[in-house]
Amino acid sequence: MRIISYNIQYGLGIDGRYDLARIADEIRDGDIIGLQEVERYWQRSGMVDEAEALAALLPDHHWVYGANLDMDASYRDEGGRLVNRRRQFGTMVLSRFPIISSRNFPLPKFGTLDQHSIQQGLLETVIDPGTGPIRFYSVHLSHLCSETRMPQIEAILDILRRAPAEGGAWCGGHPDPAAGWTEGEMPPMPRDLVLVGDMNCTNTSPEYAALTGPMTGRYGRLCNTDGLVDAYVAAGNDENGGSSNPTGSRIDHCFVSASLRHRVRAVSIDDTATGSDHWPVRVDLD
């Protein structure tokens, strides 16, 4: 199973062209794909619904979209009829396997006076690739500084911890089965998870340590038995190596629950991709 994480910079490539078809070709081999910076109805990208457009270009994938920045973009047509439309910016998950359920969580936002600060969120999906269900998350963290990202990391860790106890999208029975609330099988909320996204931080940051465990001078990284592991490292790569964008830093990551670390077979970063100012990260799992 191939997992891909890609910040597509709303389709704007390093050559200054908007080209969603190019993006689709760069991720077509993915079985489960987490995208960041997917927008709908922005003037800069031609007022395109990028989520719908990407889904049309990848018709064999199920998909969900998580709108984090959400504003009015409605208008009246020539006949005066109101066309309701939202200008949105967020994350997306595409999967060759059915997406059983999804939730979108807003993350803490720092209100700035002069610097640009946007609402960001964590998109959760539950997917069963045939080997048992997993939770798959796509996220994009604040670009401003470590201090604006740390509250987001803390919120993410809380969400990840709570999920199994909260249960699936619905759980339990209902006093009146005929009411239809328990249509279909009860959806799962598994413990195993994969978290991908543009974290805007490297392995030397406190955010990375909060996710994976502290670094010690004598014993190396102290990963927890019930915590997260950097898939790049689990695949045998040097934690200090790699780059996920032309600036030379590895800020796009895939973290897996410790229970999945032995299923990581390979991680590669496609530095030939030109569809964005980031490069796709590919993770192969058994």
Automatic annotation (TrEMBL):
UniProt feature coiled coil, ranges: none
Pfam families recorded: Exo_endo_phos (PF03372)
GO annotations of cellular component type: membrane
GO molecular-function term, one example from the UniProt record: exonuclease activity
GO aspect biological process, one term: GPI anchor biosynthetic process
Keywords noted in UniProt: Endonuclease, Exonuclease, Hydrolase, Nuclease
Domain annotation Endonuclease/exonuclease/phosphatase: ranges: 4-278
Name of the protein described by the UniProt record: Endonuclease/exonuclease/phosphatase family protein
Organism: Stappia taiwanensis
